[in-house]
Structure formats: structure tokens, C-alpha cells
Amino acid sequence: MSLSELTALELGRKIQSKEVGVKEAVSAVLDNISKYDKDINAFITVDKEGALKRADEIQDKIDSGNFKNPLAGVPVAIKDNICTEKLLTTCGSKMLNNFVPTYSAQAVENLQNAGAIIIGKTNMDEFAMGSTTETSYYGATKNPWNTEHVSGGSSGGSCAAVAAGECYYALGSDTGGSIRQPSSFCGVTGIKPTYGTVSRYGLVAYGSSLDQIGPVGKTVEDCAAILETIASYDVKDSTSVKRESYDFTSCLNESIKGLKIGVPRDYFAEGLDGEVSKAVLECAKVLESLGATVEEFDLGLVEYAIPAYYIIASAEASSNLARFDGVKYGYRSEEFNGLHNMYKKSRSEGFGEEVKRRIMLGSFVLSSGYYDAYYIKALKTKKLIKRAFDKAFSKYDVILSPVAPTTAPKLAQSLSDPIKMYLGDIYTISANLVGIPAISVPCGIDSKGLPIGVQMMGNHFREDNILKAAYALEQTKVYQMPSISK
Amino acid sequence: MANIIDDATIEYVSILAKLELSDEARQKAKKDMANMLDYVDKLNELDTEGVEPMAHVFDMENVFREDVVTNEDESEKTLMNAPERTENGFVVPKTVG
């Protein structure tokens, strides 16, 4: 077994016991990056020099007993919409192709305080708008299981990098499924935490009421440990929530006997691939055999989540992305005629097609005369969807479902029909609207050789329920890496 | 109830969005937006009479703090990424005659 095949926690333990040196661990993933990333394109920036330099510093502190965190010395990749001080942060956009943050996101600070080593910044759909990482200005990220297929998105770079052994774990962000769907496509585990759990300070905003940073790892246990490290109450994020508990790891070994699992019948309807459906329902059986109770139910309102989401997310995006004007940072057009024209030309040349499409839709739904009909209507729908989930969680601890209707599609097949692409978010989007935690765990391989993921959603602040169910399920399987990294 | 986005509407939207569209992009934007509105009009099937619009999932109120300076002068950091700057300011095209 090569060093890069270890999980983050396995490596962390070997580092603590001096069996593996930090520099050795960094070199192992740098080697994989140089071997695989010209094909996979998971990274926009690789900070080889910075990572090797930090490896020495961290090793010294570990040797002197100052770093006890299980992730100390373990190399991590960070999605490129999460600010890293002195390290290029592009958001997958031409607009920010020269943006070097002067501060780090709180989640990154938390990782660094734990002794993590940032290996680089990962590719993503431009400003996190997309489901395939094909809207990136820096080229698509390919799926490590089969490079003719997409990695998923928008955190496609983070998930592909973990799957390919180009890092031991990664941070992603999830606004409508952007951690869970690429995790599913790349055969890794990803969590979108309860809204407000991880500070959004330093996360470049897309849809502020929906965005959450979360972990991507090889195992549930890794993800729980990462979440425990990055989660914190932060006065710099006014939507940060002071949780009663930031312990996400003690729950893992709890029994799932008596855990009530609901399977929404309306998620297993038209449009769901047969192999995905079978693999996901098989997980329900496994959990039942481990002592959980499983029941089918009707969630309701499923087909209204996507339209509500695209109104809300686009509205927030149009407001959030107004800051990119060619004055304070980022791209400025070379030729313009006056201030107003400079704004327009910088934005038109700096943003890609999907970003412009959403900014325009958002501007429209917020404009006078349409605000009530679209934006307010969507917020009312969101309330109804929340009620449907509240009702479900009054009966169940966990809602089990597919992550995506299919496994990873081939490259260049998704962008031509945006609405069809949006429909692929049907199972993930509600967790963002409702603000609940959700996890994606690998649960099988389809006949094309591509990974299938299962999603588990829990009620607000009940990460413990989904973590212990996911962990119990994971113990019944052997983690598989794509052949590229073997 | 297919939506039709006319030239005046897309012009208005591009002013709000501060985007300049080529003729080709304008035609595509009109079509894309009309398709998207047709799709999201699905929400009209729902009776939302009397439902409170929900902006945030938790009943959040404004988070206030004392207006106390906690950081040092960060003007150099603020200007560091500017496309064009002077020693202590952003440079923009002339806006007054």
C-alpha cells in the first residue's frame, strides 16, 4: 500500500508515532499530482514550495509535542473559492485570475491551527455555479475513475483530488449539492453541515443563505474529524450559529439500533437510474440488518425545490457578485470609455456564460414588478419545503436517498441544456434550502465502472445521526480507490 | 403561458446586472431567460396564500456588536489587489467633468 492511499487519520497517526515524516507525506501527494493532474486537472494552483516549507515547521512542532491534533501534518487541498492568505484564489473565474487574498478563511485558519498543510487550491465551476466543473475558466476536472467523464461539481477538483490520492482530504463548499454530488461521482465521502456550523468568513459568497463549507475525505471517520476541526462559532460571520456541541466524532461508534430511517418514495420516481436506485435501496436493507428501522414515506413538494432554489440562489448571486467591478480587485478590461463602461466591460469579459446567466436571472427576479411574483414566491415555497422536512423529522432521524439521479455523465454533455443540468440537483438541493446537514457516502459501482453515492440527511444540528448511520454502513464495505491511484 | 423576454426587458436586465451583451449573446440570453422563467413558473401551482416568506432557516435577528476598532491600519492590504492604484487610493476613470 502506498503512502497516498492512507486515510487522513491513518496518516495522522503514523505522523504522530514518527513512523512517517511530514515531508514524506507531502512528497507522496506531490508525486501523485505530477503524475495524474495533467489528465485530471483537479488543481488550479499547487503550492509545492509553501507546502514543503510548512512541512518542516509542522514536523518541528510535532516533534516538540506541540501538535496533537489527529490532522497535524496531513496535507489538505482547498477549494479555490475559499480564501488562503498569499495564495491565489480564483473561484474558477477569469475575473479573479490574479486575486491573492490578504487573509485566510476562518475554516482555513482552524485547519492551520491544527497543523494542516495546504498543498494547493482545487478547480471548481466558476463561482461554484455548475454541476460538472466544466464552467471553470481553467478547464474541466476529469473523473479519476474514467477521464472521459466529469468529476461533478461544483467542488469537482476537491473530490477528484481526494479520489486520485493527490491530497488526503479537502475542503469544498456546498450551495445546492456542490460537495455531495461530486463526492458521489468520484467515490469519496462529503458532508454539508447544518447551516451556520462552519464560518463563511473568507468563503467567496454565491448564495449566502445556502452556502456552507464542508469536508471531503476517503472515509466517514476522516470527514467527522475534519468537520470537528473546521467548525466554530465566528463573530465575523453574522450567520454563524453557536452550537451546543462541536463534537462530531464521539457519535461514530454509537449503535444505530432503533435509529429511524425514512426513505422518501417520491425520490425514487421517474428520472432515477435503475442501478443507482438499486444500490441506494440496498443501503437501506444493510442499515435495517444493523438494527435501524426503515420505512418508506411521501416527502412531498419534491419538484418545487429546484425552481425555488434557482430563484433564490440567482437572486443572491446577482447581489453578491455586484462587488466584482474592476476597481478593488480582480479583472479590469483593458479598453473602456468612462467608469460605467469600465464596470460593464470588466464584468462582461471577466465572467463566463453560466455566471452571467444567473446574474441576469437574479437581477430580473429582484427587479421591481417581478420581486413578489418570483423572489417572494420562492421564499414562501422554501417555507413550505421546510415544513415538509420538519414533518419528516418528527418521525425519522435520517432521510436516506440517492445523491444524484445518475452516475457521472460524460464530458461535454451537460452544459448545452442548463435546465436539464439543474434537474440533476433534485435530491441535494433541499438540504440547502432547509439548512439541514447531509452526507454523501460511496455505496457501489455501476456497470460502467463509475461510483454510486447514497445520501443521508438529518435534522438541524443532528450530524450525529447521519454520521453514525454512514459510519455503520461504511464498516460493511471496503473503501475503493480508482485504478489511476493504485 | 410561455414567457417572452423582449429587447427592452433584456436591456433593462443588463443595466441592472452591469453587463454588456453582444447581439448574439442578447438573443441567447432572451431565450435562456424565457426558458428558465417558464420552468420556475411551476411554483405558481402552489397555494402560498398566508405563508410567511422565509429568508433564513433559523429565526435570525440582526447580530449587533459595539463599534470598536479591533484591527490595525490595513489600507495597504486593501489596495494590494487593485487593478490600478496610487499610494493610498484606487484609481478609476474620471467621473466628473
In words, what does this structure look like?
The complex is a heterodimer of chains A (486) and B (97). Chain A is of the alpha/beta class. Chain A has a single domain (3-259, 395-485), classed as Amidase signature (AS) enzymes. Chain A has 15 helices and 13 strands. Chain A has helices at residues 8-16, 22-40, 48-63, 106-113, 156-163, 180-186, 220-230, 274-289, 305-320, 339-350, 353-366, 371-395, 418-423, 429-434, 463-474, and strands at residues 43-46, 75-79, 117-122, 142-143, 146-150, 169-174, 189-192, 212-217, 260-264, 293-297, 398-402, 438-445, 451-458. The longest helix of chain A has 25 residues, at 371-395. Chain A is globular, with a radius of gyration of 21 Å. The N and C termini of chain A lie close together (8 Å). With 97 residues, chain B is mainly α. Chain B has a domain at 7-45: Orthogonal Bundle (Histone, subunit A), CATH 1.10.20. Chain B is built from 3 helices and no strands. Chain B has helices at 7-16, 23-40, 75-79. The mean pLDDT of chain B is 92. Classes of the chains: A alpha/beta (486), B mainly alpha (97).
Question: Summed up, what is this model?
Answer:
The complex is a heterodimer of chains A (486) and B (97). Chain A has helices at 8-16, 22-40, 48-63, 106-113, 156-163, 180-186, 220-230, 274-289, 305-320, 339-350, 353-366, 371-395, 418-423, 429-434, 463-474, and strands spanning 43-46, 75-79, 117-122, 142-143, 146-150, 169-174, 189-192, 212-217, 260-264, 293-297, 398-402, 438-445, 451-458.
